[in-house]
Design goal:
This protein is mainly beta. The chain has helices spanning 3-6, 8-16, and strands at 21-25, 33-39, 45-50, 57-62, 73-78, 83-88, 91-96, 101-108. The chain is 12% helix and 45% strand. The strands form 2 sheets. Strands 1-2-3-8-5-6 form a 6-stranded antiparallel sheet, with no helix packed on it. Strands 4-7 form a two-stranded antiparallel sheet.
């Protein structure tokens, strides 16, 4: 779909991001889930979460593992869906369908 190539929010992250760094979240039954993050120049962090498997996955990313620590509330922007979320606590939890991915921009605090 051409929308993936013209998504201005995703393109802005690609332009602003430094090299991404991997974080592995592990699940005894389903194995590792690829998670990548990159600090951005505005103080936010891009977080990409992938499910390369054939079954749905519940994935929880501890925000301290992607360089975000100390906050109790985070503003999260889903860059594919163009929607805003607020995460309270220290983790971002998502459910991914087979072969689905998320790309979030996360910053401490609220909008």
């Amino acid at each position: 779909r051409i929308g993936y190539l013209t998504n201005t929010e995703v393109l802005a992250v690609v332009k602003a991001a430094v090299a991404g760094m991997p974080v592995q979240t592990a699940d005894q039954q389903q194995g590792p889930a690829p998670v990548w993050y990159a600090p951005l120049g505005d103080g936010s962090t891009a977080v990409a979460i992938f499910n390369w498997g054939e079954t749905p996955r519940d994935i929880t990313v501890e925000l301290s593992s992607v360089g975000l620590a100390g906050g109790t509330e985070y503003a999260v922007r889903d860059l594919w869906a163009h929607s805003d979320l607020t995460v309270k606590g220290s983790a971002l939890a998502v459910v991914l369908r087979p072969h689905q991915s998320y790309l979030f921009r996360v910053r401490p605090g609220t909008r």
